[in-house]
Design goal:
Blueprint lengths: L9 H5 L9 E6 L6 H12 L3 E3 H11 L2 H11 L6 H12 L7 E5 L5 H14 L5 E6 L2 H15 L6 H24 L3 E5 L4 H16 L1
Helix pairs in contact: 2-9, 3-4, 3-5, 4-5, 5-6, 7-8
């Protein structure tokens, strides 16, 4: 295996070692089993920016007893999906915090066309633009095998082959319009998520280097 050449700072990525690198604002998408969470954590370290997942945002609001957290908990307790508007507000509040001034990596948001528009509005209000949208891709059979193996290790009986396939179908249906929209804006970077973790990170960084210019 070749030695990784992954840049360790935003300066290296942008090729400006003697000046401050631009702020980096990214979104990462990918189906279950593609290694999105792992790559999000690695990219956050590469760019020196926080990785922000919707799950973390929800947990922080619920633990903090915020009004939005209470709303989310009420819906969840009834077995209902949290409305987009509640999620949008949580993301807006999170992106207003000081640590995102150097950039951010959003993981799990946006998930649908409404949330794409909502994120556009949030960023417009902040005077910001997205730099890139990463989509991790993977062969469906590879994903099914990965998730099934993980379910077996973790003892997750609810992860049946049928349930896994259904979740992948839902992802494909919901995400295709999003990736198409971002591709039209020349923001989309599609990367094969199969391979050694470091190799996948290198692919992402190389794709972003071209995208960010």
């Amino acid at each position: 295996m070749t030695e990784s050449t992954t840049p360790t700072t935003r300066r290296e990525l942008h090729g400006t070692p003697n000046s401050e690198a631009r702020v980096t604002r990214l979104v990462i998408m990918g189906p279950q089993g593609a290694g999105k969470g792992t790559q999000a954590a690695r990219l956050a370290e590469v760019f020196g920016i926080p990785a922000i997942s919707t799950g973390d945002i929800f947990r922080a609001n619920i633990k903090g007893g915020t009004e939005l957290g209470r709303l989310a908990q009420e819906y969840s307790a009834k077995g209902e999906l949290v409305p987009d508007e509640v999620t949008d507000s949580m993301v807006r509040d999170r992106l207003a915090e000081d640590d995102v001034r150097t950039g951010f990596l959003l993981d799990g948001y946006p998930r649908n066309a409404h949330q794409v528009e909502a994120l556009d509005g949030i960023l417009t209000d902040l005077g910001w633009d997205l730099d890139g949208v990463i989509e991790l891709t993977a062969d469906r059979d590879e994903l099914l095998g990965r998730i099934a193996k993980r379910a077996e290790i973790e003892g997750r009986e609810d992860d049946t082959p049928e349930a896994i396939a259904r979740r992948l179908d839902i992802y494909d249906a919901e995400t295709a319009p999003l990736t198409a929209a971002y591709a039209e804006r020349n923001l989309l970077v599609q990367v094969d998520g199969i391979g050694e973790i470091t190799e996948v990170t290198d692919r992402i960084v190389a794709g972003l280097a071209q995208q960010l210019g």
